Amino acid sequence: MAKMGRPKTDEPRRNKVMVRFTDKEYLKLRKCAEENNLTITETVRKGVEQMMDSRP
């Protein structure tokens, strides 16, 4: 019988982060995600990456 479920990954995402946004901040985030054809999660991850890459 074939295995069922999600395939295993080398880097599982076990950590969860919850953030509260104002309505205005959330609309900005959604707009940014839509304009870049990304999910909100992908947008936040890319934002963190950009901030880390721009550090001196």
Protein traits:
single chain; 56 residues
Describe the protein.
- Helix content is 48%, strand content 0%.
- With 56 residues, it is mainly α.
- The protein has a domain at 23-53.
- Helix 1 (23-35) packs across helix 2 (40-53).
- The chain is extended and about 50 Å long.
Structure classification: mainly alpha
Low-pLDDT windows of residues: none
Question: Termini, distance in Å?
Answer: 53 Å
Q: What is the overall silhouette?
A: extended
- Helical residue percent? 40-55%
**H/I helix tally:** 2
Overall residue-averaged pLDDT value:
94
Strand content: under 5%
- What is the C-alpha radius of gyration, as a whole number of Å? 16 Å
Q: Summarize the biggest pleated sheet.
A: none
Topology:
Layout: H1 23-35, H2 40-53
Helix pairs in contact: 1-2
In short, what is this structure?
The protein has helices at 23-35, 40-53.
